[in-house]
Amino acid sequence: MDKPADHPERLIIEPMGEEDIEPVAAIEEDSFSDPWPLEAFRTELENNSMASYFVARLDGEVIAYIGAWLVLAEVHITTLAVAKHHRRQGIASRLLEALIEAACPQGARYFTLEVRPSNKAALSFYEKCGFTVLGRRHRYYNDEDALIMTRENLQPPGD
Fold it and tell me: What is the pLDDT of residues 27-59, one digit of tens each?
C-alpha cells in the first residue's frame, strides 16, 4: 500500500469543515477509550472562537485531525488522532506543523496538552516533537492521571 510519506503531494492539510465532523468522530471513536461525541466537534467548530481544527486528507479521505484552543500566547492541543492504518507515517507531525504555522502569526509562543501516561505512542511522539512533562493532573481521565506536557519557545517557521 502507498503511504503518504511516499507521495507527500497526496496528503492535504486544511482547516476542518462541517463536512469533516463525521469522519473525524469515527477516527476519534476508533482511537480513544473515552472518545469525544460527534456533537463536541460540531460545538467546537460552530461556537468556540478560540478553537482551531485541521484535517489531513489522503486522496480526499479524512485520515487524521488535530484540534487546539489559542488563548493569548498558549496553544492548548485538545485532540489529535490518526486513523489506525495511517499511523507512523509522519501525518501527526504534518498536522502539528500546520497548527504551528496557523497559530504563530496570532501570537502563540507555547503549546500545552494532557496525555495519559499509559499512551506510550503519544508520549513518544510528543517528546520527539520537543514537548516535556510539566506536571500531572490527578484522575483527569477519571480512571487515570494526565501528564501535562508543554513545548515552549515556539517559533514560526523560518524564524
Answer: 999 998 889 999 999 999 999 999 999 999 999
CA 6 to chain centre: 22
Question: Is residue 26 within 8 Å of residue 63, measured between CB atoms?
Answer: no
Phi and psi (nearest 5°) for 66? -140, 145
Question: What's the topology of domain 8-112?
Answer: Aminopeptidase (3.40.630)
| CA–CA gap between residue 56 and residue 90 (Å, rounded) | 11
Cβ atoms of residues 96 and 90 within 8 Å: no
Q: For the purposes of burial, counting CB atoms within 10 Å of the CB of 158, is it exposed (0-12), middle (13-18) or buried (19 or more)? A: exposed
The x, y and z cell numbers of residue 26, run together, are: 469515527
Task: Answer yes or no: is pLDDT of 145 > 90.
Answer: no
| Helix 38-47, helix 21-31: angle, nearest 10 | 130
Per-domain boundaries in the chain: 8-112
pTM, two decimal places: 0.86
Closest to 74 (Cα-Cα) out of 108, 97, 44, 50: 108
